[in-house]
Design brief:
The structure holds two protein chains of two kinds. By secondary structure, chain A is of the alpha+beta class. Chain A is 44% helix and 15% strand. The two termini of chain A are 40 Å apart. Chain B contains 13 helices and eleven strands. In chain B, the strands form three sheets. In chain B, strands 2-5-6-9 form a four-stranded mixed sheet. The two termini of chain B are 23 Å apart. The longest helix of chain B has 40 residues. In chain B, helix 5 runs antiparallel to helix 7, helix 7 packs antiparallel against helix 11 and helix 9 crosses helix 12. In chain B, a hairpin with a 2-residue loop joins strand 3 and strand 4. By secondary structure, chain B is of the alpha+beta class. Classes of the chains: A alpha+beta, B alpha+beta. The interface between A and B is large, with 67 and 65 residues.
Chain lengths: 395, 389
């Protein structure tokens, strides 16, 4: 590689501080055996507590400005932070989405009163947030949403439905997008709200995923009241409020995930034997593995470059948006391959006699369908790259 | 954001982008697709005048030390020059000369004379490597041609094929078996019994077949033997693979630029074809294939530059992808052009021809596949980048 990184003494001191915090606050047997919770309710309690500990050390949202409880961390320190956290496989930050999206939107658009009330509670996880964006009829075409918020003067009344809403079953607040002007062009008549999830008229119904587990919800609104002072920014300006939120993607994360999946796949190919021969020695599979390895190498190089460019203050280049597209497709393809190479054992689910790795290959085959759908389908991604990067006409 | 940010030791990246810019400007001024078309009739394979100018810029000696008459540039700098040569559709003996030069330079033998080194640095009359033979092989180090002893010297008999620019070369670096071991000989092209025949590849490039009919060479023509010869030849092949992959990326990118511009203006059923997702998504996929290719070339060239342990794997990955995907970019572009792309007058077939020919010079896909999967089997899951990060 033609570039090396050197962190400053200040950066290294920050690293030491993070390590000291983790040494003092992570349970000794963390990540060694089972999780310290038995039910999903206990998990939520545990993760709220974990985030409040992080926050007490001002380590919940290091990228936030100091005045709002963050560190104003440089990109270098953000990299250090995520390196150290992933090195110890720390518990999830339960309000991560709120830290990455709601907080920055409030900082940019909300009144001081709102900021003072909500920002500290996002950091401490006293309030857990969910996000109401996608709708059953508006996925790829998010701006086609039909959930209505009718202006009643001092409040709005919301009617409609949202889908794919994580955490809605226990969230305290929701950052909600709803249509306030049905006659305006579709991107313009949308408003962003802070919705109190305890208001009457909200029904949360778990959405069983393809894997049989319910990680998401559908949320139905029947004349739900939102006070006028809970509008974020201006009425009918919601599209801008949400699309301008800081979406900090950690460039290295996707790559190391792809590398781990390649490792898992290789080990499956080594341990599976067909006619006395390891599956990895099958020339057809070797072609697929060579292709995966090659693409993972390229993604590593692209990810590394985008980190280096970020450190130099250069905005992400075209290869970064392309890398996201490639990554999701290859990650999915590797999980397909993992199940296939096990032959009839591949589709055996967890708990089945003779299931390999307790059914993980089958489970990840199902779960990885989401890779090319969530966060914008591959088709939408290709449209965006074609239009913004290649300059092709919009369709 | 606060003020503390790490120092990015990035002088190399600056140098690379400057040299790439210089190469692009130079080629834009000195070369054109019309001139490429003239090569079709001349049968020269490349333009000696353009090569002279490349030599005047010092490109043949880029990798050499100042003492050797070179400019001590990095391999990564050479790779971006190769990419620009691709973009400009400018064939030359650059890659074959530089990689043959690296063999000569790397050989420990005292018989490598100052004259030979000077020829590497100047390039005026290029060197080339004669390794590939008539039989197809999944390992290009499988060499059958033999060298016998003849008094103090040696006698070479056999045939080499797909030698780049042999007809115009001063010296051929010839791979042959000596007492069963691989040996490398520096053979002046004019030696009695050396017979060069020009091939006619799709891109009309300077590709030759060379017959050695009892060619007698002196003892000092042996420049390396055994494991040293294997290492030198292997490294030269990998370096050639990386540089040709870089050239393929440049070619593919130029072809894609043409196709994208065409898709913006060509209309069917009342709208530009680039508005249809069938065309738009095809172009995006080609763009993605090129980005992957460029990243692999960067990683591989960087590994050669820093002499990191992963260079062999990285070069196999670059070559594998060139064969698997980059070579196909002009095919997809031609499809976007439709009927006009099938005509002689349209330039897209020039890129198609050149990419197909260069990709065939990278060795067999299986050779690279095996290097890559062997590395996986031994537990290497990340690339050179992962090591550094």
């Amino acid at each position: 590689l033609d570039v090396q990184l050197e962190f400053t003494a200040e950066d290294e001191a920050f690293r030491a501080e993070v390590r000291t915090f983790l040494d003092g606050n992570l349970p000794k047997d963390w990540n060694k055996g089972g999780k310290p919770w038995k039910t999903s309710e206990e998990r939520v309690v545990y993760l709220r507590d974990w985030q409040s500990k992080l926050n007490a050390a001002r380590l919940a949202a290091v990228s936030w400005p100091v005045e709002y409880g963050g560190r104003g961390a440089s990109l270098a320190q953000q990299i250090i932070y995520s390196q150290e956290m992933s090195r110890r496989s720390t518990p999830d930050v339960i309000n991560r989405a709120a830290i990455l999206q709601v907080g920055p939107a409030l900082i940019q658009w909300a009144t001081d009163e709102i900021k003072e009330h909500f920002l500290p509670r996002i950091l401490s996880a006293e309030h857990v947030w969910c996000q109401g964006f996608s709708e059953p009829g508006a996925g790829s075409d998010l701006a086609g949403m039909t959930t209505r918020a009718v202006d009643m003067g001092d409040h709005f009344l919301v009617t409609g439905a949202k889908v794919w809403t994580s955490r809605a079953e226990f969230a305290d607040y929701c950052m909600l997008l709803a249509r306030t002007d049905p006659d305006a062009p579709k991107h313009q008549g949308i408003t962003a709200f802070i919705l109190d999830m305890r208001e009457p008229g909200i029904t949360v119904s778990p959405l069983k995923q393809i894997s049989g587990v319910s990680g998401f919800n559908q949320v139905f609104f029947d004349n739900v009241r939102i006070p006028r002072d809970r509008v974020i920014g201006e009425v009918n300006n919601g599209w801008q409020v949400t699309s301008n939120t800081l979406r900090f993607e950690r460039a290295g994360t996707a790559t190391s995930r792809a590398e781990r999946r390649l490792e898992i796949l290789t080990k499956l190919a080594q341990s599976t034997v067909v006619d006395g021969q390891r599956r990895i020695d099958d020339p057809v599979l070797r072609e697929r593995l060579a292709r995966y390895s090659t693409i993972v190498q390229a993604l590593g190089e692209i990810g590394w470059r985008s980190i280096v460019n970020g450190l130099k203050g250069i905005p992400p280049g075209p290869e970064t948006s392309i890398a996201k597209l490639i990554w999701s497709e290859i990650d999915q393809s590797m999980s397909d391959c993992g199940m296939e190479l096990l032959g009839p054992y591949g589709p055996l689910q967890g708990g089945s006699p003779h299931a390999v790795k307790n059914g993980t290959p089958a489970a990840s085959y199902l779960i990885m369908r989401a890779a090319t759908i969530g966060g914008g389908t591959s088709e939408i991604q290709r449209n965006i790259i074609g239009e913004r990067l290649l300059g092709l006409p919009k369709d | 954001m606060n003020d503390s940010s790490p120092n990015v030791l990035d002088e190399q990246a600056e140098r690379i982008s400057i040299i790439q810019h210089v190469a692009k400007e130079f080629l834009a001024g000195e070369w054109s697709n019309e001139q490429f078309r003239k090569l079709i009739d001349s049968g020269d394979g490349y333009d000696p005048g353009l090569w002279d100018k490349m030599c005047a810029l010092g490109w043949p000696g880029l990798l050499l030390t100042e003492d050797e008459g070179g400019s001590e540039a990095s391999f990564s700098e050479l790779a971006v020059i190769a990419e620009e040569c691709g973009r400009a559709l400018a064939p030359s003996p650059l890659v074959s000369h530089v990689t043959a030069g690296e063999i000569v330079r790397g050989a420990q033998s005292k018989s490598v004379t100052q004259d030979l080194l000077a020829a590497v640095a100047k390039g005026a009359v290029p060197l080339t490597t004669a390794a590939i033979e008539s039989e197809l092989t999944n390992d290009r180090l499988t060499i059958a041609m033999t060298a016998g002893c003849d008094g103090d010297g040696f006698v070479l008999s056999g045939e080499k094929r797909f030698v780049q620019a042999a007809r115009d070369a001063s010296t051929l670096v010839v791979a042959a078996r000596l007492d069963g071991a691989l040996a490398l000989f520096a053979v002046p092209r004019g030696t009695a019994g050396v017979d060069v025949e020009r091939l006619k590849p799709l891109d009309w490039s300077a590709l030759d077949s060379v017959k050695f009919d009892s060619v007698v060479v002196p003892a000092e023509s042996l420049i390396a033997k055994g494991t040293e010869a294997e290492r030198l030849l292997r490294e030269a092949l990998c370096q050639s693979d990386i540089l040709l992959s870089a050239e393929l990326c440049g070619l593919a990118e130029a072809a894609l630029d043409l196709a994208v511009e065409y898709a913006k203006i060509r209309e069917t059923y009342g709208k530009p074809i680039g508005q249809y997702q069938a065309v738009k998504h095809r172009l995006v996929n080609l763009r993605a294939d090129i980005e992957i290719g460029k990243a692999l070339v960067r990683a591989a060239a960087g590994a050669v530059t820093s002499q990191s342990a992963g260079w062999r794997l990285a070069s196999a990955q670059a070559a594998y992808w060139s064969i698997d995907a980059v070579k196909k970019v002009p095919e997809g572009c031609l499809q976007v052009f439709g009927g006009i792309g099938f005509t002689w007058e349209h330039d897209i077939h020039l890129y198609l021809r050149r990419c197909a020919t260069l990709a065939s010079q990278l060795g067999e896909r299986a050779e690279h596949r095996e290097v890559i999967v062997e590395a996986l089997d031994k537990g290497r899951f990340g690339g050179a980048s992962a090591d550094a990060a």
